[in-house]
Amino acid sequence: MSVAKVTEISSSSTSSFEDAVRKGIARASQTLDRIQGAWIKEQNIVCDGETISEYRVVMKVTFILKD
């Protein structure tokens, strides 16, 4: 039987929401083993006038606990 845990993380990118998600998962995988998936809870942007300067995501990452 496996037991999973969910942790909430945030990450950002200057190019896209997709890149922010990829960066967040890549960083989480340095600390968390056995990541199974993620749910995108929020997406936000930071603007400099008319230009988007940063894409931010908040996600819940699910990983399996070691036996």
Question: How would you characterize this protein structure?
Answer:
The protein is α+β, with helices and mostly antiparallel strands. A three-stranded antiparallel sheet has the order 1-3-2, covered by helices on one side. The mean pLDDT is 96. 9% of the residues are buried. The protein is elongated, with a radius of gyration of 14 Å. It contains one helix and three strands.
Please provide a brief summary of the model.
Helix content is 22%, strand content 57%. The protein has one helix at 17-31, and strands spanning 4-13, 35-48, 51-64.
Ordered list of secondary-structure elements with their pairings:
Layout: E1 4-13, H1 17-31, E2 35-48, E3 51-64
Could you describe the largest sheet, including whether it forms a barrel? 3 strands, antiparallel
| Distance N to C terminus | 9 Å
Radius of gyration, CA atoms, in whole angstroms? 14 Å
Estimate the helix proportion, in percent. 10-25%
Number of strands: 3
By oligomeric state, this entry counts as single chain
Strand content: over 45%
State the strand order across the main sheet: 1-3-2
Low-confidence regions: none
Number of helices: 1
Q: Compute the average pLDDT.
A: 96
Shape: elongated
Q: Please write the string of helix (H) and strand (E) elements.
A: EHEE
Protein structure class: alpha+beta
Keywords:
alpha+beta; 3-stranded antiparallel beta sheet
